[in-house]
Structures are given as C-alpha cells and as structure tokens.
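Continuing the batch. This is chain 6 of the set; chains 1 through 5 are on the previous pages. Same settings as before, nothing changed between runs. Recording input and output for traceability.
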Amino acid sequence: MDINRRFEYATADDPSLNYCLWDYPAPSCPADKFRSINLLWQSFALADLNERAFAIVEAVRDEIGPFSTVFGVKWTGGRLGWEFYFYDYRRLGREVSVERVVAAIAPWARCAVTVAGTLPYFMFSIDLDDALARGERALDVVHLYVGNPGSAVSSGIAYGVRPASTTLENFYFFFDAATEMAQVVDKVECSAHVDFSRVPLAQVLLPALTRCRTICVANKQSHDCIYFSGVDVDQLLYFLRLMDYPPQTIDFVSTHRARLDHLLFDVGIDYTMQDDALVLRKSGYYGVF
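Output for chain 6:
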C-alpha cells in the first residue's frame, strides 16, 4: 500500500496537543514538517489494513473537526491494534458525544452499544481492527471515562460499556514529572500485580522517559500501566526499540526524525509480573488527527 500520497504536512498554525488534547509548547516550528497522523497512516499500511479504515478516520475528522481526535497505535503480542479517543470536558454540555461519532462512522462500522447521553463522561474511546474496518463485526464496546471526585491529583475512572453490561476497567492518575516524582514512585510501587522488592523500579519508571511533562499511572483489573506524556522524537525511538516494534515502524520514525522533531509524543506500557520477572503485556504510542 502506497501511503506517500496520504502524508500530511503541518503549518505554523497547527496546534500542539498531547493525548489529553492539552496544549504544549512545540519544540520547534511545525511548518512543512509531518503531522502525527502520518504515524497512523504508516501503521495502517504496515498492517495492510482495509481501505475502509482510512474512510473511518476521515469520517470522524469531517464530523468533529481536525485536531480533535487522539489515536493510539497499540503493539500486543506481535500484533498492531488501534484505539481512537474523543474528549469533551464540558461533560453533560458536550458536543462530541458517542452518538455523534457512531453516526459518523455508521456507513463503515455498525455499533451494537448504546450509551446514555445523560451520563457525565468527558471522554470515550473505541477500538479499531481489520474486522471492524471490513464490516465483519460490530463495534461491541465503548470505553467510557468519568471523573474521580475527591482525588488529590488529576484522576479518572474508565468503564467498558457493552450491549449487556458495564464493567470497571481502570483507575488512572496524572502527575507532573518535574515536581511530583515522589508521588509517582509511591503510586507505581502501590501495586497488587508487581512486587517491587523483586522487580527493579527502573524497569517500569524508565529513566530514559522520565524527562517528560506528565506521568500517568493506571491500575487495571489484571495489570498496571504507565504513560509518559511529552517525550521527544529521540525518546520515542528509544521506546519503539525497547518495546520491539516492527523494524518498519522504527525505520519510518528514524528516517523522518527531522520531520517529527516539532512534536512531543505520548507512550504507554501495560505490565505485570510472572515468575519474579516483569512482563510487558502491551505498549502504545499516541498522536492527534
């Protein structure tokens, strides 16, 4: 699949947004460099994803506007996967809703889930794979995020909404990497999945990535997760190599490093422990379209 024709180039007016759609100061002028969506296009092409996946992205962007959707490229057991995240911090006053996104992608992906508009969510996400893009399956889960009143730090709770059930998926907590590292350490070490008397903390709180803007720690049902937000392109390359991403992905970022150095990236790792060793279950990197 030739994706060169799909590549998009930034302008000086492009916003710089992280995976929460929060602004950050761009490390350099973005004009004529790559938009982060090119990383998404590259992953689609690498996986030989059905062309309908591209149409789904364009339908979403046409409906809610550019730079309004976060994408995650996930790497699990040697397979690529994708998740799209939608934010509207006005909650019940939202304009970006599950209903609106589901209607936009309906020509390509049917949805089996109904989410009440009266729920106070500020974010939701949907998973994409080739079967969904081909129309061979329906969208059968929407991940819904609500606030966590009473938390001393920025925090939220995620639920999986399915046709017949709603289940708790994770709690997550944001910390400033420069000023709250002691709290990050406490939060990471407060785990039921990993015994840090047997696993070095540095295997999770990776020193090469802690030079970032925020660190998010999530507690999930069967494992924990850590996200490093605001890493530069060289840290992204370190992450891709460490997580053993496909050589084509690493080569793409390396080859186009100078076209990506105006961006800050967000990366995440799902982990647990087995037989006294840390197990990395899944990883992901994020961008905006």
